[in-house]
Amino acid sequence: MELNKLTIKQAHNGLKNKDFSAIGLTESVLNKIKSQNNSIHAYLTITEELALSQARKVDKKIQNKEKIGILEGIPVAVKDVILIEGIKCTAGSKILENYIAPYDATVIKKLRKAGAIFVGKTNLDEFTMGASGENSAFGPTKNPHDLERVPGGSSSGSAAAVTDNQCIYALGSDTGGSIRQPASMCGVVGLKTTYGRVSRYGLIAHASSLDQIGPITKTPEDARIVFDIIKGKDEFDSTSLAEKRDGQIQEIDIKNLKIGVPKEYFVEGINPRVEEIVKKTISNYEKAGAKIIEVSLPHTEYALACYYIIMPAEACSNLARYDGIKYGLSIDDDNLLEGYLKTRRQGFGDEVRRRIILGTYVLSAGYYDAYYLKAQKVRTLIKKDFDKAFEKVDVLMTPTSPVTAFKLGEKTNDPVAMYLSDIYTVSVNLAGLPAISIPCGEINGLPVGLQIIGNQFADEKIIQIAQKL
Amino acid sequence: MNINHIAKLARLGLSEKEKKKFEKEFPKILEFVDKLSKIKADKIDPTNQVTGLENIVRKDKSRVKSQPETEKLLKLVPKTKNRYVQVKAIL
After folding, report:
1. A411 given a catalytic annotation
2. Bridge partners (DSSP) listed for residue B85
3. Beta sheet of A212-217, edge-to-edge order
4. What is the four-CA torsion angle of A124, A441, A407, A128, rounded to 10 degrees?
5. Which end of chain B has the lower number of beta carbons within 10 A, N or C?
6. A210: which strand partners?
């Protein structure tokens, strides 16, 4: 049995029944990482020592006949933008190349308490800015389904590691689609939760009103397991939310389900075979008794433009902290200003600088009202579109990405073409909604993902519906 | 867009070659986001958060850091002097 191929549920049962040990499971994952990392490059840091010492502790507990939790002894890969105390955290950037995390992110604290095994930190687009993984300062990750293609991004390493069984599950982060889009392109499950349900404390900030941490897993059931452990209000993140309906999640009956299909998501630009596969998947829900209703989200075509104003505005503010004084790369010069300029020039890659310039521009005097304020108003309209749709339907179903995994280098010289990769995912972040991407078919061996979008707080509901596929 | 002005505001150093590259790219990106000018939204309230939470406050008390915590943070600082963060003269 190849232990690294197991799901969380299967691995947990195996540990509980003593079919194998936590050390055995962890070694099987570490061996897979070591044999694959040269070709796939999913990991930036492998934390073998930490993993093995954590696994030994779990094995001792099992030997002592103590009860183990659902994530106890199970290897997890963590996107290298989430802090694990004492471990390097680069955010895929030269500016943090030697940064050692001084504390645990809240999600890491929760996973530690749950007995998780940290096997390593995964590759990503620099500061999570990208849709292909190619913006990593440390080289791109390859798609395990085809090494000439990208795995999607920005959680490129996490999605590739899960699909290639280089971990049992992973954590990613999603600002405009960075969990769902790579999950779709790698053929795994990716969950972006309702904004605020998972603490952002210890997540290196990209755009704070949009960022969420979430799981990338092999099954929807596993996504639910991880979500249940990492969720919750956190005193260190003032935007985190307490659960509204405590544990009162009703069992979904597909026969009573109303599924909305937004017509604006099936227009020019989509690969016709992606459309075909996604529509066929939706019709499977219809065959199971769900009612399919066409809905309209009229401001969809403005979502990406709105996102590319709000996100860089927040990002350029967040990135102001990299000044070479408190931590990170520091290039000394004659005076303070020259030091800033040189540090930031050498430390940041092209896409990061592009977003800093764009964000600074839309916030600058004379342009604020026309760009930033306008985008905030359009954000209201986008949110209202969803509110209206959810008066009529329980969930929405769409493709996650208009295309399957593209070739490395195909879009790197055309920023706007790269931005279009997130066309079906950004609205969800602007509205703060939960969405899950699940694999629903393949085109020439390349996975296609179905996106299920829920109303605010309907995280558990969309996972349940995903489980019924 | 005046790249020199914006880069200065953002404290971002750019070489002449990089400036040229960005100057070429930005009109396309701005044309893309200018799409929003087609929408009338004068009477719409702006959204700057989606949680509905307001005025989340805590007691105005600092969390005292332990010695090891302070050491870890100081170790990350590029230049220190007598356990202070050292910076170039500002004035």
Report:
1. no
2. B80
3. A43-46, A117-122, A75-79, A169-174, A212-217, A189-192, A435-443, A446-454, A395-399, A258-262, A291-295
4. -20
5. C
6. none
- Which residue in chain A is spatially nearest to B13 when comparing CA positions? A341
Q: Which residues of B touch A332 (CB under 8 A)?
A: 79
Q: Where would I find the beta strands (DSSP E) of A181-223?
A: 189-192, 212-217
Return residues 83-112 of A near B (CB < 8 Å): 99-100, 102-103
* Separation in Å, CA of B89 to nearest CA in chain A: 7
A320 touches chain B (CB under 8 A): yes
Q: Is A218 a catalytic residue?
A: no
- How many Å lie between the alpha carbon of A367 and the closest alpha carbon of chain B? 11
Per-residue pLDDT of chain A (469 residues; tens, 9 = 90+): 899 999 999 999 999 999 999 999 999 999 999 999 999 999 999 999 999 999 999 999 999 999 999 999 999 999 999 999 999 999 999 999 999 999 999 999 999 999 999 999 999 999 999 999 999 999 999 999 999 999 999 999 999 999 999 999 999 999 999 999 999 999 999 999 999 999 999 999 999 999 999 999 999 999 999 999 999 999 999 999 987 765 556 788 999 999 999 999 998 889 999 999 999 999 999 999 999 999 999 999 999 999 999 999 999 999 999 999 999 999 999 899 999 999 999 999 999 999 999 999 999 999 999 999 999 999 999 999 999 999 999 999 999 999 999 999 999 988 888 898 899 999 999 999 999 999 999 999 999 999 999 999 999 999 999 999 8
Do A327 and B56 lie within an 8 Å CB cutoff?
no
Of A383, A9, A386, A410, nearest to A189 by C-alpha is A9
Residues of A in contact with B61 (CB under 8 A): none
Q: Which of residues 392-421 of A touch B (CB under 8 A)?
A: 415-416, 419
Strand partners, B80: B85
